[in-house]
Specification:
The chain is an alpha/beta fold. It has helices spanning about 15-25, 50-65, 100-110, 135-140, and strands at about 1-5, 30-40, 70-75, 90-95, 120. The protein has one domain (about 1-125): 3-Layer(aba) Sandwich (Rossmann fold), CATH 3.40.50. The chain is about 30% helix and about 20% strand. It has a five-stranded parallel sheet with strand order 3-2-1-4-5, sandwiched between helices. Helix 2 (about 50-65) links the parallel strand 2 and strand 3 (about 70-75). The longest helix has 15 residues, at about 50-65. It is globular, with a radius of gyration of 15 Å. The N and C termini lie far apart (about 40 Å).
Length: about 150
């Protein structure tokens, strides 16, 4: 199966790792995971984001450490749809706040005569305070990458 995901991956945290694990699990042993990493206009609303090269480097290091690097393609994306509207994919993995984007992607795909993507929605990974882990919270020094309160 060809699975796509997208994100900023500003600080690679436990929530991102959960998303990646679900993507590779869904793709299966012989499948491929396409990872879109936010760049350009998508980053204007963010206060602090490391460079695309740095975020991709950290992502690749993690993928290698988990043995996920053999069937993966990483590309920059410049809008919330990324490559999912045009690409030849079977499924998309999303979080609760991005499921609307996946539904819009499917509408666009159907309008273009393409098959809709199977949508897998994962739950947020919660920190010790039962709030979602996020890069923003980590950068604000509320929690660490594992969700522990600082």
């Amino acid at each position: 199966m060809k699975v796509c995901i997208g994100g900023t991956f500003n600080v690679l945290h436990k929530g991102h790792k959960h998303l990646l694990e679900k993507a590779f699990e869904s793709a299966g042993k012989n499948g491929t995971v396409f990872i879109g990493v936010a760049d350009g206009e998508m980053l204007k609303k963010k206060k602090y984001v490391t460079s695309l090269d740095e975020r991709v480097k950290v992502l690749k290091e993690y993928l290698i450490s988990k043995g996920y690097n053999k069937h993966v393609v990483i590309k920059p994306i410049h809008d919330k749809y990324g490559l999912a509207v045009e690409g030849d994919y079977d499924a998309i993995i999303v979080s609760p706040e991005t499921i609307i984007n996946a539904e819009e992607i499917n509408e666009k795909r159907i309008n273009q005569g393409k098959k809709p993507l199977k949508i897998f929605k994962i739950s947020h990974v919660l920190a010790e305070d039962n709030k979602p882990i996020s890069s923003t919270r980590i950068l604000n020094k509320e929690i660490d990458e594992e969700g522990r309160i600082l």
